[in-house]
Amino acid sequence: MSDRTIGILGLGIFGSSVLTALAKQDMNIIAIDDHAERINQFEPVLARGVVGDITDEELLRTAGIDTCDTVVVATGENLESSVLAVMHCKSLGVPRVIAKVKSQTAKKVLEKIGADSVISPEYEMGQSLAQTILFHNNVDVFQLDKNVSIVEMKIPSVWAGQSLSQLDLRGKYNLNVLGFREQENSPLDVQFGPNDLLKEDAYILAVINNQYLDDLAELNGSLSTVVG
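Request: output the structure for the sequence above.
Response:
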């Protein structure tokens, strides 16, 4: 078992989906929810499951939240509860607290009181859908924040046989290459140089500023027969 410990406060639809995804990884998970049936449902994959109020600082301490390196405050319905949970987690010394919100007002409040990251699942889903439509499923776009995304796409045949220095992807498309895959879902190779030749049918992973996504979509549209 990993020495990483993740806390999840609230096991509604969002919290449960986060827990399910994390349970597939090698880490300890502490979950707290005020519904016993939710805790019981995930008991087999939990290092600790506690039924109780996430706004109770002493309960959080007893549950071991102070041992977590990251805590997800997954309940966004009640702003007061989210505020208290975030404040208590920071008071207990949790290095990274991620909070779910329902509105921009709530986002500002939670950021003010110390949340390290504030997310709106509805917004993120909307962004993901928009990118899917934009790129016709030919390019995977993972939005890191409002300014930066990671993109993964099959190398266009017109790029194959040329080197990164020849293509000048940073200058032409603002693509900062992270690595390559021999085929879809194969291990990422990050050992490459400016003179290495790109291989047809391989995949490229790169960071891009969001303001250049339209340019990439235009490229993708013009090469739709060879991308994806």
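The domain at 124-222 is CATH 3.30.70.1450 (Alpha-Beta Plaits).
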